[in-house]
Amino acid sequence: MAQSLSTTCTIVGGGPAGMMTGYLLARAGVDVVVLERHADFFRDFRGDTIHPSTMQVMFELGLLDEFLCVPHQVVKYAEVEIGGERLRVADFTHLPTRCQFIAFMPQWDFLNFLAARARGFAGFHLIMEGEARALLRDDGRVTGVRASTPTGDLEILAHLVIGADGRHSTLRENAGFQARDIGAPMDVLWFRLSHRERETQAVLGRVDVGQALVMLDRRDYWQCALLIAKGTCDSVKARGLEAFRTRVARLAGRDDASEIREWDDVKLLSVKVDRLECWHQPGLLFIGDAAHAMSPIGGVGINLAIQDGVAAANILTAPLKRGNVTVDDLAKVRRRRWLPTCATQAMQVAIQNKVIYPVLHSERAPAVPRVLKLARRWPVLQRLPARLIGIGVRPEHVRASARGDDGRLRSS
Length: 412
Ligand SMILES: Cc1cc2nc3c(=O)[nH]c(=O)nc-3n(C[C@H](O)[C@H](O)[C@H](O)COP(=O)(O)OP(=O)(O)OC[C@H]3O[C@@H](n4cnc5c(N)ncnc54)[C@H](O)[C@@H]3O)c2cc1C
Description:
alpha+beta, eight-stranded mixed beta sheet, seven-stranded mixed beta sheet, 21 strands, binds flavin-adenine dinucleotide
């Protein structure tokens, strides 16, 4: 027989969207249970970018100073190298935000930080190794989830279930929702190369005939993303590791890449861009990647997931406290986040189709695009992409109603 518990809101998924929503709701005095199916937050080759808008949220929550004590790298510029020429694409140093840079921090450090602060609130409950298996329903309304935990099956009854369980969302499937596939012409192979230059404080893209490599400066090493045409990972592997190393070394401008010892050092990100048209049912809401998987262009997936969490907490704190979350309340979250989601995906798709696809299918040396020549001539133009990446469309701020401190610290 399954154990059961009741709460006001249960959140499935302890990723950036789920943890931020859980933190904000608990801080505002809402009882919340977050279920995370893994035993820890450790994931290699996940998004490690904390954007200026996320740090702005941390500032609004009074967490920023403490947060910036967690080891991170500061990235102030995005640059691209085309035919040996280095050009600056984005300059984050003029953003109207508290932090004028992107912080690179392992995602597990970020999530552990949020979890530790959230645990300070009496109403925050995090169940690790808690995997939601199915939705519970009563009279057409979602009333909770059935989960497996290390101590047995658990039924969690809640006024609201938030599905923040990522791009392969189980809940989405369980609820019968189907995402609209927007498509992507590429996949990404992630791997590390050692650092041989001085720290650059930049994200660097290198473009050559038919290929592109993005290198993220992690101080001790470069986190590298090789863009490949969609579905060609197997043929890349079939050509052999040595051919791959040679290709990488050439693109990265070094003698060899023998430090990539085996294919296990290379992780495939199957790029997916999709979104749900409707994000809710009575008693159920999807946010983050579960509502919209983003292309890796701009590295904005975490940012959007967190912004969804802030919007959800802003809109739903009061109805959750009243114990009366209506379908209208849930629709407001989707309405609020629809423009940022669609606008960001539209920009990503335009870059995928107009820049990346031609690069990956060209047999000629790439030329410097006119827009980059203009940005070199008028550096002020480098601020626009920085704004779109660093802040995004319609940034969210923690509203006073969701900020209320009746979450009461456990120690008080
Ligand atoms: C290889 C890779 C590299 C990326 N690089 C970047 C980057 O540089 N910058 C960037 O911004 N974004 C990047 N992304 C995307 C980014 O990681 C996501 O957009 C972001 O993490 C979405 O947050 P989320 O909370 O919505 O979902 P997720 O981070 O996917 O979190 C979902 C959580 O739910 C848990 N879960 C799933 N199912 C269940 C269940 N049934 N029960 C309980 N828990 C469950 C999962 O374990 C996971 O912890 C990358 C993604 C990948 C895969």
